[in-house]
Design goal:
Layout: H1 3-11, H2 14-19, H3 21-34, E1 46-50, H4 53-67, E2 73-77, E3 89-94, H5 100-109, E4 115-119, H6 125-129, E5 132-135, H7 148-160, H8 166-177, H9 182-185, E6 189-194, H10 198-213, E7 217-221, E8 237-242, H11 249-255, E9 259-261, H12 267-284
Parallel strand pairs: 1-2, 1-3, 3-4, 4-5, 6-7, 6-8, 8-9
Length: 302
C-alpha cells in the first residue's frame, strides 16, 4: 500500500488526492514501458477521446504527440467523435469506466479499429468494450472532481512519448509546498491560457475552479486572448498562463489592470498549483469541494 493510498484512506478528500499526484505520476511512468505495446506506436494515426476532464487530457496528449513527431493525433469529446474517420488506434480515457458517451462510442466503433481504454477500474463496461485496457487503479479517486487520475493518465502517455517525469514530479512537490498568493484567493475573475499541449491543461484548470469553487472561469489558446477576451480584464482579473507567454501579452494584461501569472515550472506541475488554489477558493467561499453542486462522479444516462 502506498503513502498516497494511506492519505486518501485517512481523509477521503480532494486535498489528499491532489497531494498524491507526484507519486502517482512516477508509478505511471514506470508502467509506461510495461504497457507500451498497447499504446500508440510511432507513425500511427491516432484519436484520443473522453469526456470532461478526460477530454482535456486527450487534447494535451494529442498536441504533445504531434509535437514530438510521433504521428498525427486528434482529440475529440466522445459525443463528437467522427465515427466515419479511420484511425490506426483509438485511445479512450475514462476514470469510472462507465461514462455513457464513451461506452456508446465504443459500441458504434465495434471492432472496426483497435481501441485501448485507460481507466481506474478494469472490471467496468468500458474496459470490457475496448480491445485492450490499461488500469490505473492506484490513481483512482473518491472525489467527484478529477485531479490525480486525470494527470496520472497524462503522465503515462507523456512517459510513453519519452518525457522524463521525475523533474515534473519534483516541480509539483514544490508547488504544493508554496504558500498561495492572496491575490489568487481574492480574484474576481480567472482566465487560463495555454499554448500547444498546455492548452488542454488550461482548459482543465478553468474547469476545476468551476467544479470545486463554483467560480466562473474561462480558458483560451494564449494568442486568442487579444481577440476579445482581454476586454473583460480589469483590477481583480487574473490571467494564469500555462507555459511560455506570447511576447508582450503580460504587459498588455497589466496595462488593462489585470494580473498576469506565469511560472517556469512544467505546465503539469502548474496544474497542481491550480488544483490547490481551486480547493482553497472553495473553502474560502464556504463550499465543500468534495461535494460540488450538480455533479456526479460519472455521467450515466438512462
Amino acid at each position: 500500500m502506498s503513502r498516497a493510498d494511506d492519505a486518501v484512506r485517512e481523509t477521503g478528500n480532494t486535498e489528499a488526492e491532489i497531494s498524491s499526484q507526484p507519486e502517482c505520476w512516477l508509478r505511471a511512468a514506470a508502467l509506461a514501458a510495461e504497457a507500451g505495446s498497447l499504446l500508440p506506436a510511432r507513425g500511427e494515426r491516432v484519436a484520443v477521446t473522453g469526456c470532461g476532464t478526460s477530454w482535456f487530457m486527450a487534447q494535451s496528449y494529442a498536441a504533445a504527440r504531434e509535437a514530438s513527431g510521433q504521428g498525427e493525433t486528434d482529440a475529440f469529446a466522445a459525443s463528437e467523435f467522427p465515427v466515419g474517420r479511420r484511425y490506426d488506434r483509438i485511445v479512450v480515457l475514462s476514470r469510472s469506466g462507465t461514462t455513457t458517451e464513451v461506452l456508446q462510442l465504443l459500441s458504434r466503433i465495434g471492432r472496426t479499429m483497435p481501441t485501448v481504454a485507460i481507466t481506474a477500474d478494469p472490471d467496468t463496461p468500458i474496459a470490457a468494450a475496448a480491445d485492450a485496457v490499461i488500469p490505473l487503479d492506484f490513481a483512482d479517486e473518491r472525489s467527484v472532481v478529477q485531479t490525480r487520475f486525470a494527470t496520472t493518465e497524462l503522465a503515462l502517455l507523456r512517459a510513453h512519448l519519452g518525457h522524463d517525469l521525475t523533474p515534473v514530479a519534483e516541480a509539483a512537490r514544490r508547488a504544493m509546498a508554496e504558500p498561495m498568493p492572496r491575490e489568487l484567493l481574492e480574484a474576481r475573475q480567472l482566465t487560463f491560457l495555454g499554448t500547444g499541449w498546455s492548452y488542454g491543461l488550461a482548459n482543465d484548470a478553468a474547469l476545476k475552479f468551476r467544479e470545486a469553487a463554483g467560480m466562473w472561469t474561462e480558458s483560451y489558446p494564449a494568442m486568442e486572448y487579444r481577440h476579445g477576451p482581454i476586454a473583460v480584464t480589469k483590477p481583480g482579473s487574473v490571467v494564469w498562463l500555462f507555459g511560455a507567454a506570447p511576447d508582450g501579452l503580460p504587459e498588455e494584461i497589466a496595462a488593462a489592470g489585470g494580473l498576469a501569472l506565469q511560472s517556469q515550472d512544467d505546465p503539469m506541475a502548474e496544474l497542481v498549483r491550480a488544483h490547490r488554489v481551486a480547493v482553497a477558493t472553495a473553502r474560502a467561499r464556504g463550499l465543500d469541494p468534495d461535494r460540488p453542486r450538480n455533479l456526479a462522479r460519472s455521467v450515466i444516462l438512462p
